[in-house]
Write a structure and sequence with these properties.
Blueprint: E1 17-18, H1 24-34, E2 38-43, E3 46-52, H2 53-61, H3 72-75, H4 89-99, E4 103-108, E5 111-117, H5 118-125, H6 128-137, E6 140-142, E7 145-149, E8 156-162, E9 165-168, H7 169-173
Parallel strand pairs: 1-2
Antiparallel strand pairs: 2-3, 4-5, 6-7, 7-8, 8-9
């Protein structure tokens, strides 16, 4: 992954947002409409918290609360961790790893301008075709054996040498 690509190049600009006095029910419906797993809670255009599907399950559903009676302010995670549009993709990924989070709202001058997710970063972090090409050309040695592309099913796995073919354990059982 190139370290100098700024997150503004991959971020989603249309962010699913809500006010903190909105109900979990209303926010959940908006999340479904946007097809996302989180909603950024904003106040005057500035992010103040975030609510994820996990928050809704753990703090509402698992506690048998009524979604229409629970406000986002009650379950949102705050203070929210944000980044700037000029933050590198590598730095954003490091923040996510260190903080154990999957989404980072992008803020410019305090205003919410986008959001970047682990999926966004993954989509640009590896060129799968190049990766498979490397595996096809050479196998990777590990302590437990070789990892590569099975010559029978094409799956990337730990390989066993059978009759001059390198195959995965699943194919070995049916070979």
């Amino acid at each position: 992954m190139e370290a100098d690509i700024p997150v503004k190049e991959i971020m989603t600009r249309e962010v699913c947002v809500a006010r903190k006095d909105e109900s979990v029910l209303k926010a959940s419906r908006r999340m479904i409409e946007f097809g996302v797993g989180s909603i950024v809670v904003v106040e005057n255009g500035r992010p103040v918290g975030i609510v994820t599907e996990s928050d809704i399950i753990r703090k509402v559903v698992a506690r048998n609360k009524v979604p229409s009676e629970v406000m986002l302010e009650e379950i949102m995670t705050y203070p929210i961790i944000t980044i700037k549009p000029t933050t590198s993709i590598r730095e954003a990924a490091n923040i996510m790893l260190k903080k154990g989070i999957r989404r980072l709202p992008v803020v410019d001058g305090g205003e919410l301008v986008g959001i970047v997710t682990d999926t966004d970063i993954l989509s640009v972090s590896i060129d799968l075709g190049e990766y498979l090409g490397l595996i096809k050309e050479s196998y990777i040695e590990t302590e437990s054996g070789e990892i590569g592309k099975c010559e029978v099913c094409g799956r990337i796995a730990e390989l066993i040498d059978v009759d001059g073919k390198r195959i995965c354990e699943d194919c070995y059982e049916s070979y």
